[in-house]
Design brief:
single chain; alpha/beta; Rossmann fold; six-stranded parallel β-sheet; globular; binds D-glutamic acid
């Protein structure tokens, strides 16, 4: 970091642990930047909350990250991307600071599936909020006219993950049932998007029940490549970010509780801090 440059990490926000699946991949591709992760674990899951509440909670988190010096914030949460991103970009950013940016995870994922699906039939797993918003259907129809999108909500998956049940037999029941329900919607589905950043934590179970000819799409690597590309195209933003290769973790839950599960998942011991929004 240059002497006179103020700490300016890339902010990464999620309702809980799920955003770590995105952050982990971003740091592999862009290891030099500083990162500030915020998980609103005390108020997770967001998936079954109303539009207005998800928007209010997300805006609070974005403002908090801006106050810590973030010039750029990634909403590493599909529910927040579906329900809050557009309003924040269009209505709030112009007042808060038009030079800062907030980016989501839905658009880059949808851009990518055009290269992957051969049948043009795509399945989406997401939280009830993401599926009800029809954000994926709308984006896919815009970018890939002619594609058919089938969305299925999995209300039990995030609670299973947040309660450390992902590797237990209870998870098998719900994963198998939800896969069967999605595939029954369209027998041409050849690509399934894990449209919730928590879901890669259930990947072992998902692969166990998903027919092998179907591609299961995780968002982490896609979002990481898309951010890399964004920073190449926006050198003004790139120049404002600091490169101390640090990563700081904040949670609205107890730091100890967050650190426990996050450390296991990330494969390194982390020392999160509790904050109040
Ligand atoms: N990880 C989030 C997502 O990508 C939301 C999970 C939740 O809080 O329900 O949708």
């Amino acid at each position: 970091m240059s002497q006179n440059k103020k700490y300016s990490p890339i902010g990464v926000f999620d309702s809980g642990f799920g955003g770590l699946t995105i952050l982990k991949e971003i740091r592999k591709v862009l290891p030099d930047y500083d990162y500030l992760f915020l998980g609103d674990n005390a108020r997770a899951p967001y998936g079954s909350r109303s539009f207005d509440i998800v928007y209010r909670f997300t805006l609070q988190a974005v403002k908090y990250l801006f106050d810590q010096g973030c010039q750029l914030v990634i909403l590493a949460c599909n529910t927040a991307s579906a329900k809050a991103l557009r309003t924040i970009q269009q209505n709030d950013l112009p007042h808060i600071d038009p030079s800062r940016r907030v980016l989501g995870v839905i658009r880059p994922t949808v851009e990518k599936i055009g290269e992957i699906s051969k049948t043009g039939s795509v399945g989406i797993f997401g939280t009830p909020g993401t599926i009800q918003s029809e954000s994926y259907n709308i984006e896919i129809a815009k970018l890939h006219p002619g594609f058919t999108t089938s969305g299925h909500a999995c209300p039990m998956w995030v609670p299973l993950i947040e309660n450390k049940e992902s590797d237990n037999p209870g998870a098998d029941y719900f994963v198998e049932k939800d896969i069967n329900q999605l595939l029954a919607m369209d027998n041409r589905i050849d690509t399934v998007i894990l449209g919730c950043t928590h879901y890669p934590l259930l990947l072992k179970k998902i692969e166990k029940y998903m027919p092998h000819h179907i591609a299961v799409i995780e968002q982490g690597p896609i979002v990481a490549e898309s951010l890399k590309d964004y920073l190449i195209r926006h050198d003004d933003m790139e120049a404002r970010l600091t490169k101390g290769a640090t990563c700081t973790y904040l949670t609205t839950e107890s730091a100890e509780k967050f650190g426990d599960l996050a450390s296991i998942f990330l494969g390194e011991t982390i020392h999160p801090r509790h904050i109040d929004l």
